[in-house]
């Protein structure tokens, strides 16, 4: 009888254990967030910018953070001419994530470029500041003084080219006829200025941009003010130009060039961009890393310090990707 009771007790224990296992399994399933299929894996391409620009420097440091946070994902960086080329790559599937200015995004959408309707926003990052750089002894005091000058306007696929052409037009200049436009990037513009092969150059980037900072330490330069009335002319138009705003470059952005003086300019937001093709879990994890790595990356790339969780979700003119929405919901107080 004792053995019979023992067998009965064992069977009862086994049945109880099986029931508990099922209950625990159901509980784990119920508590698991919808759509959570584990850590993302695979590979992605992140299109950045010119080698010495902020996009590339930011991308290099973000790549390190992504490797730590998403160890099963291989990230490849690809340099580019800038915002316009970045958008074309992502929209057509040549890259998975990128950074682009809001005015470049709006232009891409307005023009109905290939894949435009597939673009989605992840994070509103930091603002780019337009910087018109001239030698300190230059007679250029305003944009209209560039008439007849050799001007670096950025590469064809850059966001710099968009805003440079628009600012020249707002100042009453024909970008193709009234100046000699030189379509080069920030990787070569400083050298050309020091060699006398450029009279001025436009740059649009986070503050400070390393290439401009280094130039100011070895060559006497000045930043030309972009007056509020010039910005108002940009903003009076509709479409992409509504993304420009008046701003001030603080006096300590480039101390040697500014000598403590703040400089009025134009600012435009940068967006982290992907498409609706990108997996939601991958996008959620990528967005989380961008936000969480802000302070660490910001110690080396100052512009990254300006990424703000409170405004990150405002990716106008793009809809927010579902994966990024999931991240913002997860951190909402």
Distance between the termini: 61 Å
* SSE string, helices as H and strands as E: HEHEHEHEEHEHEHEHEHEHHH
What is the beta-strand fraction?
A: 15-25%
Question: Approximately how much helix is present in the residues?
Answer: 25-40%
Characterize the overall form: globular
Uncertain segments: 1-8, 16-36
Work out the number of β strands: 10
Integer-rounded radius of gyration: 26 Å
The whole-number mean of residue pLDDT values reads 90
Report the structural category: alpha/beta
> What summary fits the major beta sheet?
10 strands, mixed
- Summed up, the helix count is 12
State the gist of this model.
The chain has 333 residues and is α/β, with parallel strands linked by helices. It contains 12 helices and 10 strands.
List the main descriptive attributes of the protein structure presented here.
333 residues; alpha/beta; ten-stranded mixed beta sheet; disordered N terminus
């Amino acid at each position: 009888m004792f053995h019979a009771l023992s067998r009965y007790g064992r069977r009862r224990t086994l049945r109880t254990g099986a029931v508990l296992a099922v209950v625990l399994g159901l509980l784990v399933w119920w508590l698991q967030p919808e759509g959570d299929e584990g850590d993302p894996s695979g590979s992605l391409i992140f299109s950045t910018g010119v080698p010495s620009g902020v996009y590339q420097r930011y991308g290099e440091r973000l790549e390190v953070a992504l490797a730590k946070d998403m160890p099963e994902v291989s990230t490849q960086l690809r340099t580019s001419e800038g915002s316009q080329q970045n958008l074309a790559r992502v929209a057509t599937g040549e890259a998975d994530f990128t950074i682009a200015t809001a005015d470049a995004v709006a232009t891409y959408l307005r023009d109905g470029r290939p894949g435009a309707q597939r673009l989605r926003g992840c994070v509103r990052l930091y603002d780019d500041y337009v910087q018109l750089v001239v030698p300190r002894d230059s007679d250029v005091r305003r944009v209209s003084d560039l008439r007849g000058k050799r001007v670096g306007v950025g590469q064809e696929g850059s966001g710099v080219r968009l805003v440079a052409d628009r600012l020249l037009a707002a100042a009453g200049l024909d970008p193709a006829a009234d100046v000699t436009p030189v379509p080069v990037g920030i990787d070569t513009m400083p050298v050309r200025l020091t060699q006398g092969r450029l009279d001025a150059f436009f740059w649009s980037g986070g503050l400070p941009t390393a290439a401009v900072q280094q130039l100011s330490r070895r060559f006497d330069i000045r930043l030309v003010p972009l007056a509020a009335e010039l910005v108002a002319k940009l903003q009076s138009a509709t479409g992409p130009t509504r993304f420009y705003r008046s701003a001030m470059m603080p006096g300590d952005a480039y101390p040697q060039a500014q000598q403590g003086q703040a400089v009025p300019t134009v600012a435009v937001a940068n967006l982290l961009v992907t498409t609706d093709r990108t997996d939601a879990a991958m996008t959620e994890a990528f967005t989380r890393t961008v936000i969480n790595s802000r302070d660490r990356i910001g110690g080396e790339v100052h512009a990254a310090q300006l990424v703000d969780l409170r405004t990150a979700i405002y990716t106008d003119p793009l809809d927010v990707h579902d994966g990024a929405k999931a991240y913002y919901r997860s951190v909402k107080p």
